[in-house]
């Protein structure tokens, strides 16, 4: 997939092409200059300011073409740079290169589809920090890819896909809760929650008593609400989600995973703590 931080590469490429066109047009617009079209862009066999400008333009254009993947246009520019290196480039030939570059870039850009992200969604698509915050990133590293994919889907307005990834994030949290209480892992949320709810009083009585029991009981109850509200529907074809719904579920999952991170972590996080 073509990936650009912004449309600057397209704009720059077209700007370089315009500058090359301008050089040729200026040389061709009066009779006196037209007589010199057979001259090379060197002066007395040495590079002059115009030659240096043309090299800069061609190199700049080639760099932008590489970014946008315009390979055929890039080949024409490479030939232009070769002609400049060989000191054989005439003003007439420069015009031919300019025409060829223009036609090639038009053809190549016609094959490229560009999708523009809403500015408010750019942070979801590519964030320098974890979208769920440092505590979740540290304590649940196995959820990183799902969180990242949920953010990308939200940015691209693939709302139902976003919710599905969020349910996978929450499932990691649920499995960590089960593991903390000694409940065997299962794919069925209802079965896992049933085992968790049954064992909480027994396990927490051996720990910190009422406070511990309350935290785990609330965590299990919240997971059951999540299961009934979203998980059951998201994982079956009977439900789709709007962008607004996905944003709300994203925010809710983010807050809840941050809450779980105050007491829980996955196996990978514990290995990272041990081995750095």
Can you describe what's shown?
This protein has 13 helices and no strands. It has 276 residues and is an all-alpha fold. The chain has 2 domains: 8-109; 119-275, Four Helix Bundle (Hemerythrin (Met), subunit A), CATH 1.20.120. It is elongated. The two termini are 34 Å apart. The model has no long low-confidence stretch (mean pLDDT 82).
What are the defining features of this structure?
single chain, mainly alpha, Four Helix Bundle (Hemerythrin (Met), subunit A), 70% helix, elongated
Ordered list of secondary-structure elements with their pairings:
Elements (H helix, E strand, L loop, with lengths): L7 H21 L2 H4 L14 H20 L2 H15 L5 H19 L12 H4 L8 H6 L4 H12 L3 H22 L8 H17 L4 H25 L8 H18 L6 H9 L1
Helix pairs in contact: 1-3, 1-5, 3-4, 4-5, 8-9, 9-10, 9-11, 9-12, 10-11
Main beta sheet strand tally, sense and closure: none
The overall strand count is 0
Structural class of the helices, strands and pairings? mainly alpha
Rg measurement, Å = 30 Å
């Amino acid at each position: 997939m073509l990936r650009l931080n912004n449309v600057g590469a397209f704009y720059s490429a077209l700007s370089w092409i315009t500058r090359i066109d301008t050089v040729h047009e200026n040389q061709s617009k009066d009779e006196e200059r037209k007589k010199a079209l057979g001259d090379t862009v060197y002066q007395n066999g040495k590079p002059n300011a115009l030659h240096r400008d043309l090299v800069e333009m061609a190199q700049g254009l080639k760099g932008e073409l590489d970014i946008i993947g315009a390979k055929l246009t890039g080949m024409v520019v490479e030939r232009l740079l070769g002609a400049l290196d060989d000191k054989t480039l005439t003003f007439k030939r420069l015009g031919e290169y300019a025409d060829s570059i223009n036609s090639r870039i038009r053809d190549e850009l016609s094959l490229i589809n560009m999708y523009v992200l809403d500015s408010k969604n750019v942070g979801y698509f590519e964030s320098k920090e974890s979208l769920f915050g440092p505590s979740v990133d540290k304590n649940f590293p196995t959820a990183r890819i799902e969180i990242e994919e949920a953010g990308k889907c939200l940015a691209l307005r693939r709302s139902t896909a976003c919710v599905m990834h969020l349910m996978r994030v929450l499932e990691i949290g649920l499995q960590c809760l089960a593991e903390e209480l000694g409940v065997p892992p299962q794919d069925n949320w209802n079965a896992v929650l049933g085992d968790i709810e049954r064992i909480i009083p027994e396990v927490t009585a051996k720990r910190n008593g009422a406070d511990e029991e309350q935290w785990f009981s609330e965590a299990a109850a919240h997971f059951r609400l999540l299961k009934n509200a979203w998980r059951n529907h998201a994982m079956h074809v009977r439900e789709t989600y709007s962008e607004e719904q996905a944003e709300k579920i994203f925010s809710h999952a983010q807050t809840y995973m941050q809450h779980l991170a105050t007491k829980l972590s996955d196996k990978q996080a514990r290995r990272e703590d041990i081995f750095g």
